[in-house]
């Protein structure tokens, strides 16, 4: 029986789907992820998160400049992101906030997104929440310069609104790359969005915190975002518990918090 034009079109579509799926499973190209994640919730939920689980430290970077070793790779990535327009936040940001701190740090803090102060200065956690984060870091006997601080989103959502799923999906390859280059001994996820993104979870931070997880074999401790602590200071006690957990893993001596 001769096949109809409609059948042939269906076969082509199926073959194309298989081809794209194979491509993703072979090299996990973030460019393809971005395109598919933006166009189809199915691809976002099934394949984007799958790529996170398959990510292995030491695999080649997707950007040529970022294949440079050590700090040079991180600097190249930071430079590339300055002109990024992968999501709508490119149109409203003042400055891209890549992250800052010691590239050799044992401990990396990952927050949600830049606020107004960060957007203006191009640095993470520089406002009131940033001052509180500095005190939290000092509570485990470290100086702010001894850790690395970054966010899930590198550009500010207008009015400090919550990040949209498509913005997180667009920006996530940068974070994956950044964490791969930093390869710390421990990650502290600050707030629901950071914890949910890194742990591929929908649970709120109140439920996620209090336990130790792993992200690509790196221990991960979730805790409340410092900005949330400004409104709910009663949770500082729980953050102190989480910091003691971090200090225990890293062999640090916690000092009495000044928060
Ligand atoms: S938030 Fe991330 S993906 Fe969106 S424009 Fe900024 S750097 Fe690019």
Textual characterization of the structure:
By secondary structure, the chain is an alpha/beta fold. The chain is built from 11 helices and 6 strands. The longest helix has 23 residues, at 5-27. Helix content is 49%, strand content 10%. The chain is globular. The chain has 2 domains: 1-54; 61-250, 3-Layer(aba) Sandwich (Uracil-DNA Glycosylase, subunit E), CATH 3.40.470. The chain binds iron/sulfur cluster.
Strands, helices and their partners?
Blueprint: H1 5-27, H2 30-39, H3 41-54, H4 70-81, E1 100-101, E2 107-111, H5 116-121, H6 128-138, E3 148-151, H7 165-182, E4 186-190, H8 192-199, H9 205-208, E5 213-215, E6 218-223, H10 226-231, H11 236-250
Parallel strand pairs: 2-3, 2-4, 4-6
Antiparallel strand pairs: 1-3, 5-6
Helix pairs in contact: 2-3, 2-7, 4-7
The chain binds iron/sulfur cluster.
Search tags:
alpha/beta; binds iron/sulfur cluster
Helix content: 40-55%
- Give the H and E element order: HHHHEEHHEHEHHEEHH
Classified in CATH, the superfamily of the largest domain is: Uracil-DNA glycosylase-like domain
Note the overall shape. globular
Main β-sheet: number of strands, strand sense, barrel status?
A: 6 strands, mixed
Which fold name fills CATH's third level, the topology of the largest domain? Answer: Uracil-DNA Glycosylase, subunit E
What is the annotated CATH architecture of the largest domain? 3-Layer(aba) Sandwich
Strand order of the largest sheet: 1-3-2-4-6-5
């Amino acid at each position: 029986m001769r096949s109809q034009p409609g059948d042939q079109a269906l076969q082509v579509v199926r073959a194309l789907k298989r081809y794209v799926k194979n491509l993703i499973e072979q090299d996990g190209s973030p460019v393809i992820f971005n395109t598919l994640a933006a166009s189809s919730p199915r691809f976002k939920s099934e394949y984007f998160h799958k790529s996170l689980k398959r990510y292995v430290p030491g695999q080649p970077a997707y950007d040529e400049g970022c294949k440079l070793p050590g700090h040079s790779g991180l600097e190249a990535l930071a430079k590339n992101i300055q002109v990024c327009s992968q999501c709508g936040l490119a149109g409203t940001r003042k400055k891209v906030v890549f992250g800052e701190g010691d590239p050799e740090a044992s401990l990396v803090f990952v927050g949600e997104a830049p606020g107004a102060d960060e957007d203006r200065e191009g640095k993470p956690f520089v406002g009131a929440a940033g001052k509180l984060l500095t005190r939290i870091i000092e509570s485990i006997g470290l100086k702010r310069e001894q850790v690395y601080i970054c966010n899930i989103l590198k550009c500010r959502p207008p009015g400090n609104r919550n990040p949209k799923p498509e913005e997180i999906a667009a920006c996530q390859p940068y974070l994956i790359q950044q964490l791969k280059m930093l390869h710390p001994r421990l990650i502290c996820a600050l707030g629901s969005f950071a914890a949910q993104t890194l742990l591929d979870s929908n649970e709120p931070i109140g439920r996620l915190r209090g336990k130790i997880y792993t992200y690509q074999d790196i221990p991960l401790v979730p805790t409340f975002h410092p900005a949330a602590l400004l409104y709910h200071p009663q949770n500082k006690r729980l953050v102190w518990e989480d910091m003691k957990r971090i200090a225990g893993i890293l062999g640090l001596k916690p000092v009495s918090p000044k928060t």
